[in-house]
Design goal:
Belongs to the flagella basal body rod proteins family. InterPro entries: Flag_bb_rod_N, Flagellar_basal_body_rod_CS, Flagellar_FlgE/F/G, Flg_bb/hook_C_dom, FlgE/F/G-like, LlgE_F_G-like_D1. By secondary structure, this protein is an alpha+beta fold. The protein contains 3 helices and 22 strands. Helix 1 packs antiparallel against helix 3. The longest helix is centred in the last third of the chain and has 34 residues. The two termini are 22 Å apart.
Length: 274
């Protein structure tokens, strides 16, 4: 295969990854707490073919010679943590964080190992755990992390709501009681967050080894927590931008596909020469 075709094929492979990312953003435009993923491209290695040393130097700012690249690659996929709009739901267990870079925490059991993951989605539920007790979980059934671990309360309350500090407040026989508080953390290094599926984020082991958990995540005190009850944070996907990025990427993909076609035609012409 010619160098031209190899360059185009390499770039097309990376452009397909970008199209997949854009498609995932668009598919989650109505997913509460979803954060857009932005892609950035960078050039692969290039090869420098210099002119003969005896050639007269021209008044130019770039090195003499021809620089032949090897295509482009997807350099980074960053998570855009820009705040989404707040949508009122009126549901007692729906809550929205009003500060960017702050997260709820859930405990996920994967292959027998418990791991804390982070989310902006605050649509919580109560699951029965037996003996008249209920546990606060997210929409996928993962336990929500509180100040003292899992949040477990007694059932048969008259009323339940979550206040602006993240405290679960129940009413029983006219008496108000705080049952627990949802733990909120703030990411000092937002770019260290990576998608973990199910609208959750994790911190990579490499980042943990470099900075330690204390250099990435800070606990947010109740006084500094701003939670809106009866509401959810909407996705921050900008549909207009995603559609524009999709068309741009599709045009680039078509251009590289055309490059392979032209290279094939040129090879055919060369082989037909006698």
């Amino acid at each position: 295969m010619s160098r031209m075709s190899l360059q185009a094929a390499s770039t097309m492979n990376q452009l397909q990854h970008r199209l997949d990312t854009i498609g995932n953003n668009i598919a989650n435009v109505n997913t509460h707490g979803f954060k857009t993923k932005d892609t950035q491209f960078s050039s692969l290695l290039k090869q420098q073919f210099n002119h003969d040393e005896n050639q007269v130097n021209l008044p130019r700012h770039t090195p003499d010679g021809v620089r032949v690249g090897t295509g482009a690659r997807l350099g980074h996929t960053n998570i855009n943590l820009r705040q989404g709009s707040i949508q009122e739901t009126g549901r007692a267990l729906d809550v929205a964080l009003q500060n960017a870079n702050q997260f709820f925490q859930v405990m996920v059991n994967e292959n027998g190992v418990n791991e804390v993951r982070y989310t902006r989605s605050g649509n919580f539920y109560l699951n029965e755990v037996g003996n008249g007790m209920l546990m606060l979980v997210n929409s996928n059934g993962h336990p929500v992390v509180g100040d003292n671990g899992q949040i477990i309360i007694q059932e048969n309350m008259d009323e339940l709501f979550i206040n602006e500090n993240g405290e679960l407040v129940t009413m029983r026989n006219g008496n108000q009681q705080i049952e627990g508080r949802i733990a909120v953390v703030e990411s000092i290094r937002p770019r260290s967050m990576e998608a973990a599926g199910e609208n959750l984020f994790r911190i990579s082991q490499e980042t943990l080894d470099t900075y330690g958990l204390g250099g990435i995540i800070n606990d947010v005190a109740a006084a500094n927590t701003q939670i809106k009850g009866g509401a959810l944070e909407a996705s921050n996907v900008d549909m207009a931008k995603q559609m524009a990025d999709m068309m741009e990427t599709q045009r680039a993909y078509q251009f590289n596909a055309r490059t392979i076609s032209m290279a094939d035609q040129m090879s055919g012409l060369i082989n037909s020469l006698r």
